[in-house]
Amino acid sequence: MSPTVRYPTRVAVGMAMLALSLAACGPAAAPSGGQASGADDAQCGQQTRVMAHDLGETTIEGQPRRVVALEFSFVDALASIGVSPVGIADDDDKERIIPAVRNQIDDWAGVGLRQSPSLQAIAALDPDLIVADTRRHEAIYGQLAEIAPTVSFSSLQAGYRENLESVRAIGVALDQCDAVERRLAEHETVMTELAAQLPPGAGAVLFGVSSDTAFTAHDEASYTAGVLQELGLDYALPHTGEDTQAEMNLETLVTTNPDVLFVAGVEEGSLVGEWLTNPLGQSLAATSEGKVFFVDQNVWSRFRGVTASELIGAQAVELLGGS
User: Fold this and answer.
1) Of 169, 309, 304, whose CA–CA distance to 230 is shortest?
2) Domains of the chain by range and CATH?
3) Which of 7, 105, 172, 258 is most enclosed, with most CB atoms within 10 A?
């Protein structure tokens, strides 16, 4: 029988405590004028800022108050500095906004799916800033920019460190650079403390997402892999192509042979759950060592944000037997 972990009690309590802590100490609107390293820091504190981003340049006046976020990582970034978006592309499912972030923001209007948000719903909110994902929204960027000033950063294909730079850039767009730097300094402390709690010799880890028909492995350049590497873990799958994710069959998984396998999804009815019942799947090092862990897809895969990465780190530490 394959090992399954679905948020043990101590993890669930820890996640709840982290959510409460962030809600309590998350900064509200902070004085502007800080320095955002690597994110056009010279513009911090300027009334008019010309933001360079993936899809061009955007002029932003003052401090935007009505922000629409078209990816979950951007919602996380906004929540981290005490800004509640008025609209979110929440996939028509508010439960996809993880509790640790949902508890930090006010209620919002859904504007449809992340891959195809509703332009009409966005326009109805009269936003003064839209934050878009470069890969998902390049085709509609012009239409978004007609509605409100729009900045675009990589989220879907962004690595962990690239995501942190996007957070800094969002801080510049909002003229909230001091608040961003405080939150990121706190984040670095959290990640350092989590890394210190990991037991030595965990081996090479692999993360992927399993549905009932496919297993999508994330390589070392992907967001979640970056979080795990930030903790000091070795990663089993190198980056070899343009994309950071690719479907993997059982034979390739066995060849990769990770010592630890984190799977976003539910074991029962999933393809990986099926694999673990046959002899080839049971030959995996992770299976024989009891280190196949099924984890929450919203936290580990969809969100890709500062808060989410801390939750991933905390759960990884516990599942691997850390202090």
Assistant:
1) 309
2) 9-18+195-319 (3.40.50.1980), 28-189 (3.40.50.1980)
3) 172
